[in-house]
Amino acid sequence: MAQQNRNAYAYNNYNQNAKIHNFNSTAAPKMKPAPQSRPALRLVKKTRQTAAQLQQQTAADTKRIIKAMSVAMAIFLFMALAIYSRVQLDEINREINVVEDKIKLAESDEIKINSELNSIISINNVEDYAANQLGMVKVQNHQVVYVDLSSEDYVAVVNGKNADMVINNN
Fold first, then answer.
1. Contacts by 6-12 with C-beta closer than 8 Å and gap 24+?
2. Looking at the chain, which runs of residues are DSSP E strands?
3. Taking a C-beta distance cutoff of 8 angstroms, is the pair 154, 170 a contact?
4. Average pLDDT for residues 93-101, to the nearest whole number?
């Protein structure tokens, strides 16, 4: 800023010197701003108002004040409701985040438990437990007997008693 003022001062001196010494300059001469004219003031006589006019004026002013206060109250209530709704929205979002965190924790626990369950129930573990703990062996093909249940079955009664046997009619 100080540099600008010095340059402006130098420029002004140059212009003054140019006028005195008749230097030809390509810069446009500075123009002084035209004085602004003010509108003429005129005297206005205020007429005296009657009591009825004053009462009407007071009533109109009161109505304007009530309208302005009503608008201000409406704006205030609107802003208060907007702030309240934002606060409620923030609280709900915070609760949602807490529940989402709990869901993520439960899902990770589920994955852990499922992996433990899969390792316990794996076919190799079941076969090992059956062979070593229970003394079981795998069935072989010659030990398998297939039963055909597609034909009709009936029960034979001998001497009025159930013979406890099913006779297959093949």
1. none
2. 153-158, 161-168
3. no
4. 97
